[in-house]
Amino acid sequence: MLAQPNWDGWLSPLTSGTAPSESIVEIVRGVREALCAQQAILLLPEPSGRWVDFACVVGEQADEIQGLRVRPEETLLEPVLVERIAWHSVHPSPETRRLAPDLPNESLQSVFGVPLPSIPTSALVAVNPAESHSETVFSVLQQVAPTLAVLVHLQSVRVQLQQRERALKWLRNLPSRLGGEISLPKVMEATERLLRKVSPLGGGLWLYDDDHTRLLCSVQHGALSLPEQIDPTTLPNGWKTQSSDWHHEAHRFRLYPLSLGERTLGLIALAVSDESEPIDWVEPLTSPLALLIAHALLYEQVARKAQTMTALYELSLQMGEVNTLSEALELITQSARAVIPHDYCVIYLPTRYRGDFLAPERVSPPSEVLMRHAPHAQYSLPGWVYAFNAPISAPDLANHPQNLKDPLPSGFSSALAVPIQVAERTLGTLLLLTVQPREFNLYEVELLFTLANTGALRLNSLLQTVRA
Question: Is the pTM higher than 0.70?
Fold first, then answer.
């Protein structure tokens, strides 16, 4: 055993605010000196628990060994790490696993290891000690292992407190950054500045809808290129509940979910490297950020609804002032473009001479292929909406069952169609088309339905005048 452990010299610096990590290094150094070992090594689990880090190495080749990361089953020390027993190996054969896959076995004469109490997959190890009696070596290692375990926990707590302190400092400055405006652009701008400061290499933030199928918005920074839209299905399992590593184009990124209760709004990705500063202090900020972003999204939603109600009110006023069918149809297409993003808008009305077909009375912007297409008044997507007086949302237009018999022209990926009706009478169909695939949500379906029927009464009057 250590005759007189230098506990005072190792631990007294803690009272003056010295980091526990420095005391850990001194104790590991004391173990090596007491056993005259080639190396003394402290192995600790990384956060996920799947790997083990050579956290502290004192002795020969320390700079080369420290920081190595291995799986427990890849190292000679698996019995200590996994079975949690005091273990040693004398004169390991060349076929025996090494301390780490990249380290040679030739210089190993003996290896002794003991687990640290209360820390899974951890070990204090002596390599090639001059002391020949295993009981003596084990006694030295076991004498300091409990203290090392306490210091490791203290260091972890210290790091967490430092992370929270940095996070609180950023939160304290947040009101002045936002300037009293909790809008989504302001929140995204403030968050982007934070991410740039934490990881100058690169990163970003992506927000999705509730189903994680549609990107709402994103911000990116740094020289490392990232996709405009990250497909959530390609991310590591469990990314919605905990931070995880993700690789993109040979670069490693740390992912942090933005979760609010059981709802995941999106994710943050930050580039990490061996030379970069620790970025884990961002994790405590993800919950406040998610709450802030949720409020900003609600603010945007309320503002959008107010804008929509204004557009519908203006449409109702303007429809009362138009005198021609062409003007009425143009107003409806303009209003649809103002409230729901799309590429083409078509208004179909039944033809006077071919009652089984619908005619494209208005196409905005003009499209020759759409103007030439007169769908069947029942066995087509616009016709089904007209005949059965019910809306259709078709994110996959080509494979929608109502678009198979008399399909719309090719080149369009998604569609939303609603009937234009007055009381029980259906006047026609209002159709929105997009070139890129997209999902129309329930709010957009209801909104287009309301818009179509806001102008239906005046449209009906003008149609009767035209056909009189």
Answer: no
